[in-house]
């Protein structure tokens, strides 16, 4: 987070000074801002993030106590809380289900989905950490395709176990992107067949 927020000190400070923010969110934003200023000042060899630690406690009861906690869960919580606090959108666009239009290209549909998502929530944190996931479902009976684009903050990729090759980020993403067949309890409702079908 510190690398991603190097250029955002003023953005965070201005958000913390806004009277329209929820006071609990402001506390987290202020404490992160203060911690980053100490880390980047170069005046100390180390620092103790007690204030940020207790701000997280107040917002997320599951992190209270001194037990070990999941680092990815904490990162996701921090990104989400900061995104909400720094949200540029004051009046979100009404919710709607977006479907691909007839003769609309995949790239145009992706752009439309991304613009719609930005019209509902947008922040400096989202600029840095959010991506778009493309998924396509194909009915194995009639061949009907359903395409959707969803925003994501992180990907839980599998780690291939192999003795011959070194595991890389690229191989993990490749494994994550392989085609999967859904059947039995995981069947998908096909809009054309009007029944649940096996899909890939």
Describe it:
With 200 residues, the chain is mainly alpha-helical. Helix content is 41%, strand content 10%. The chain contains 7 helices and 4 strands. The protein has helices at 9-17, 23-41, 50-59, 71-85, 106-120, 124-129, 169-176; strands spanning 131-138, 145-152, 188-189, 196-197. The strands form 2 sheets. The chain has a two-stranded antiparallel ribbon with strand order 1-2. Strands 3-4 form a two-stranded antiparallel ribbon. A hairpin with a 6-residue loop joins strand 1 and strand 2 (145-152). The two termini are 36 Å apart. The relative contact order is 0.10.
Tags for this entry?
200 residues; mainly alpha; two-stranded antiparallel ribbon; two-stranded antiparallel sheet; 4 strands; extended; disordered N terminus
Low-confidence segments, given as residue ranges, are: 1-10
Number of helices: 7
Alpha-beta classification: mainly alpha
Strand order of the largest sheet: 1-2
Order of helices and strands: HHHHHHEEHEE
Helix content: 40-55%
Number of strands: 4
Please state the overall shape, judged from the principal axes of the Cα atoms: extended
Beginning-to-end CA distance, first to last residue: 36 Å
Whole-angstrom Rg: 21 Å
Strand content: 5-15%
**Sheet bearing the most strands, described?**
2 strands, antiparallel
Average pLDDT taken over every residue: 83
């Amino acid at each position: 987070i510190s690398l991603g927020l190097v250029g955002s000190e003023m953005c965070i400070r201005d958000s913390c000074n806004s009277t329209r923010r929820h006071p609990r969110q402001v506390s987290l934003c202020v404490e992160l801002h203060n911690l980053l200023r100490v880390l980047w000042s170069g005046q100390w060899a180390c620092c103790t993030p007690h204030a940020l630690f207790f701000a997280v406690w107040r917002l997320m009861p599951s992190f209270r106590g001194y037990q070990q906690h999941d680092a990815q869960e904490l990162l996701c919580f921090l990104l989400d809380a900061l995104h909400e606090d720094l949200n540029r959108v004051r009046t979100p666009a009404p919710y709607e289900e977006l479907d691909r239009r007839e003769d609309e290209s995949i790239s145009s549909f992706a752009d439309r989905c991304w613009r719609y998502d930005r019209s509902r929530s947008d922040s400096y944190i989202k600029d840095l950490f959010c991506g778009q996931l493309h998924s396509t479902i194909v009915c194995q009976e009639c061949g009907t395709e359903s395409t959707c684009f969803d925003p994501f903050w992180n990907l839980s990729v599998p780690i291939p176990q192999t003795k011959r090759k070194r595991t890389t980020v690229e191989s993990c993403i490749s494994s994550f992107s392989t085609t999967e067949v859904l059947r039995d309890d995981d069947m998908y409702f096909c809009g054309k067949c009007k029944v649940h079908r096996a899909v890939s």
